[in-house]
Amino acid sequence: MTSFELMQKHYDQRDLAARAWKAKGGKVVGYFCDKVPDEMILAAGFFPLRLSGDPWDSAEAADKYTEPFYEGFVRSMFSMLLTGRYDFLDFLIIPHARDSILRLHSILCEVQRLDPDLNLPDLYLFDTLHTRFYLTGLYNLDRVRDLKHKLEYWSGKEVSNESLLRAITVGNENKVLLKKVAELRVAEPPLLSGAEALQIIGSSMFMLKDEHNTLLAQFLKEAEKRPVKDGVRLFVIGSPLDNLQFYDLVESCNAVIVGEDNCWGNRCADNPVDTSLEPTEAIAERYHLKSPCTWMYPMALRLAYCLQKALEAKAQGAVFFIDQWDYAQAWDYPELKKTLEANGIPTLCFKKQQYLLSDIEREHLKIGVEDFIKGIGAGMK
């Protein structure tokens, strides 16, 4: 297999590396969202695995405990925990991210109380705040220290500064290599499609970082030989996309997704950890000041970030994809639309989208994207 094919394999079989680690006697710590410092999990001797949903699997098991108005990917992950697809997890870290993920902590605690026979992992709430104020930074530093103590409790050993620095170094190398992968997308013409990039980035969260770094280095050595990608350059903004459905559809319409504002995309490679600081403080600073997500304050940071990334990618248009019930993402859409269009980047928005796209929805999306691309082409003449 080529390096890219191996990363594709781990993107498709997301529990492959974690289950292999578990089979050798290791323990696995699952986590939601990109707010959790996986460097600390690795430094504690665990396998860090970011949880994702499965749009092709039923989320019916979640109906017993939750209302239907949760984002599809959140309901899917909850259902997978209930049905045993994540039965190999030893521990689970739930961050104070979007409201639906935060609520999963209390719901899972209640599920454990009601049905102790369910094989659910030990839970930990990583309760950080979402502003960049100085006092927020102090609060979040305390939460990172609390997380370190919890990992030490789970592992039964101290998480040393040396082990933290090793994990930080590996993680920083991964970010540097992923940045080089991103350069292939913004090249003129692009050498990498958005769907291919999503698989490469995503696989970094389902493998150990040092192994992923080896594959990335091999991939980059051969990258210049890749065939170029033709099509209108688009930037995607919206709800977390932990699967390829939308990217595949868009790129089937004579388009190339050259960048995105998405927690499963390029944002993961932003903001390396500052190795000149004490390791715990450095990790706290990175996650406190990382690239702004849709629920972070103030909104002005989001507007500036998205505009900068779209301009850097030389995007000819921006497409919004917003899940049904994702009110946080819908909240900043009007201002993002206004900002992008004021800077010459036309926009298209798809709202209230289902986690699994039906054939009818796919046809509607395809027609919308094709018309949008025709409009961009007409505007360039």
Describe the structure.
This protein has a domain at 3-161: Rossmann fold. The chain contains 14 helices and eight strands. It is of the alpha/beta class. 50% of the residues lie in helices and 12% in strands. The radius of gyration is 20 Å and the shape is globular.
Q: Largest sheet at a glance?
A: 4 strands, parallel
Q: What is the ordering of alpha helices and beta strands?
A: HHEHEHEHEHHHHEHEHHEHEH
Q: Would you tell me the overall average pLDDT?
A: 95
* Counted beta strands: 8
What radius of gyration results from the CA coordinates?
A: 20 Å
User: Gap between N and C termini, in Å?
Assistant: 44 Å
Q: Helical percent range? A: 40-55%
Strand content: 5-15%
Sheet with the most strands: spatial strand order = 2-1-3-4
Structural class: alpha/beta
